[in-house]
Amino acid sequence: MTQDMDENDWERLYGLLSECFKHPDEQFTEDVSAGRLESELAEAVEPLGVEFELGVDEGLVPETEAAFDNEYIALFEAFETPYAPIVESPYKEWYEGPGSDGLLNGPPAEDMQRRYAAMDIDFPDAYLPDHLALLLEYASILVEAGTPDQHRAFVADHLDWIPAFRRLVEEAAAESQFHRRYVRLTGEIFAQIRNRLDIDDPTTEAIDDMIGRVEQGREGVPDEKEFRE
User: Fold this and answer.
1) Residue 99 DSSP one-character state
2) 158 or 55, higher pLDDT
3) All domains of the chain in start order, with CATH
């Protein structure tokens, strides 16, 4: 059963999801292993009516932080192929075909750079400006600022690629059990968010087009990544 959500509910949900899509650090690894993340997310998604099964399965989280990060790199950063880019630009139209950086730094990234500059926000050097974790944090900022129309427009314009992202994760080579699980959950959450905000779901054609752009641009991304030890 769905429930009303206030600003704190939205901020908490976006904040927790954002952490799931950053490179896992020691604290995050501990929070996942101890079940703290799952417990908090279960509460956060309850108002949306999203079912969430508690219980950290054996093997969901690698034994070390480095191994956890390796799984992240394998699934999202091309250590194993096929993979699923975790930034928006590869899924969206370019001005005149892919730029010199291959899949990266397209119009969505430029738009996010302008948005950050307008709010005098510095984004981490470790992430591209249209990285999913940062998009989720920005959505939280819009909610906190009390701008519901801007929040709705941002979800419609900058988070519409999540269904395509989910499909690419399903087709990816890397096992990465934790991140696969949370991509599926994020897809279910955003289906409910779009419904709550009265936003149309992306059409099958639109999703296919996004996936096609990623597949056409993959050659622009370096094939080699280094695992952490």
Assistant:
1) B
2) 158
3) 7-85+99-220 (1.10.3480)
CA distances from 113 to 39, 44, 142, 150, 213 (A): 34, 29, 15, 17, 22
Count Cα atoms within 13 angstroms, Cβ side, for 32.
26
Structure-token pair, residue 129 = 């400006």
* C-alpha pair distances (Å), 53 with each of 38, 80, 118, 185: 9, 29, 40, 10
Q: Is 142 helix (H, G, I), strand (E, B) or coil?
A: helix
What DSSP state is assigned to residue 172?
Answer: -
CA atoms within 13 A on the CB side of 23: 15
Q: Could you report the per-residue pLDDT of 44-90, keeping only the tens digit for each?
A: 999 998 887 776 677 788 989 999 999 999 999 988 999 999 999 99
Helices within 145-197 (DSSP H only): 148-158, 162-171, 177-196
Amino acid identity for residue 125 in this structure: D
Tens of pLDDT, residue by residue over 128-147, are: 999 999 999 999 999 999 99
Percent of the chain clearing pLDDT 90 (strictly above): 72
**Which residues make Cβ contacts (< 8 Å) with residue 121, sequence separation at least 6?**
141
